[in-house]
Design brief:
mainly beta, 114 residues, single chain, globular
Length: 114
Amino acid sequence: MAVYTSAGQTPAGGESGIEGVITVSPANAGPVREGAPRSVPFANVTFVVTNNQGEVASFTTDEQGRFRSPVPPGHYKVSLKGRKSSIGRFGPFDVDVISGKMTNVQWECDSGIR
């Protein structure tokens, strides 16, 4: 009997994938004001997860910049979906996913504003 798994499922070891928080900085143009945050959650933004064969998954961050994306074990690059401007840095971020484990990351994007 053959056992088949689909993207996002792993055999008998638990779920594998990527989860974490994405922030963006600087939060505002100009000098950083005392008491003002240097970075803020990158909220409600869609990113794509790719490998050598192309897009594997996508996810949208929540209000706190958090996300969770089940993907099979492997090496991936994560970057902003549909990026049109060359200003700022929004990935790609490299990540390795191990079977049966959610890889926790904290990435900071550069808004490009000064």
